Amino acid sequence: MEIRVAQAAPASFTTDMLIVPVAKGDTPRGTAAEVDQALGGLLADAMRRGEFKAGAGAVLCFPSGGAVRARRVCFVGVGETAKIDAEVLRRLGGRSARTVNNARLESAAVAPLASDSPFAGLTATDYAEAVVTGAVIGVYRFDTYKTDEDSRVPDTLTLLTLLCPDGQRGAVADLESGANYARIVSEATNYAADLANHPSAVVTPTRLAREAKELADRLGLSLTVLDKEQMIAQNMGGMIGVSQGSVEPPKFIVLEYKGATSAPVVMVGKSITFDSGGISIKPSAGMEEMKGDMTGGASVLATVRAAAELRLPIHVVGILTAAENMPSGTATNPGDVLHMHSGLTVEVVNTDAEGRLVMADGLSYAQRYSPRLLMDIATLTGACVVALGHYAIGLMGTDEDAKTALTEIGEATGERLWTLPLWEVYEEDIKSDIADVKNTGGRAGGTITAGCFLKKFTGNTPWVHLDIASTAWASKATDYLPKGARGTGVRLLTGLLRRLSS
User: Fold this and answer.
1) What tens digit of pLDDT does each residue of 137-170 get?
2) Which listed residue (72, 183, 356, 438) is catalytic?
3) Integer angstrom CA distances of residue 350 from 245, 362, 363
4) Which residue in 247, 269, 439 sits closest to 326, CA to CA?
5) Catalytic residue among 71, 213, 282, 483
6) Does the pTM exceed 0.85?
7) Is position 455 annotated as part of the catalytic site?
């Protein structure tokens, strides 16, 4: 989708569909009133009769009949003026873009709220980021494997224009900057969602390595991929132990973007391309969603892509711990002891707590880069869903500044976080009788004890851990977020890299 910014009065701008935001009230106000006057009061009549109450996401469309330059006018509700924020604007962008696609139109323009307050109290940059994020993610659908054309959602919208009032000439550059940032990051988000939505027979560890190679070639990135023999030489007991029950070979993928010469930010993403639970096999209900257990790795891959495309002045290393967790005669058994890359030994008491095993090797390996910040992102624990539902990412770590920054960025992007403790008392639950540590402390506090396990492999490096099990996969769509995989974490992580690079 191409994004443009234009200074023009909404009624005189030529486009297939004019999107006009409408705030709640008895009558239209601002730009909505101006456009509605040209239409002869159709919106005012609908509001007066209670047919359109302008709640956030509500839509009312009319053919223009030549009254304005656009072929159609779509009024989109944004709720109460005082409550309009970035999330409301993302919903506006998403609902609008989907409406354009459903009408099989090619272009749309988003009118400002009003000439005197065009960006709903946000900066022009934040306004553009929100609307464009909603639009680009809002049109995302995963229908690769549908053969019935009638069941496939059309993707006709190719040009979206943000309209800027003449009285806001100085805002054009800020709108363009925000729109460009949002387009790149949102396209990367959709890329991550694609990888997670594909079947596990398609997105294997080998496929993830190939994706990293394509990004490296296109964007001039450095790439290292360790195979099984190299992992054995590196004493990566977690990677080998988790993958040894599968015929799919593991891949340890390191993708590096050198936008600066300073110490890097290193991100480690859990990349279990299918998680059956291994010998501690999962229940069959819902197991098909375990193709998305590599969402953390997909988000790391996409974040490195976004940083490179944005040319952020920062050094970034992305590590994907790619493996498949399957039961077989060669699989790791409960009670086995693994010798990890860090030198610690781990008693495996549950083979379904496999993500932390591969992540531990990734976190340990990452320390060779002497990172300024070490982050990991993983669909790590079902306990996180129990604790936080499907609306917040679990946040833990030792770097208070990074945790604060991530929390602020999460509020701004809609990828919200909630901090959980890493008190030493929780480490009692993962003490092993026969090894240095065991890989799970049981059901109680499961998200926290998993974080405590990972902490043992971070050394003295500043570190934060994101458990995205609660938000990575959705059973229903919203005005702009899709059903299924959502590319969770890409907007959040890229936002942090942008802040650190400034």
Assistant:
1) 999 999 999 988 777 777 899 999 999 988 787 8
2) 356
3) 14, 20, 21
4) 247
5) 282
6) yes
7) no
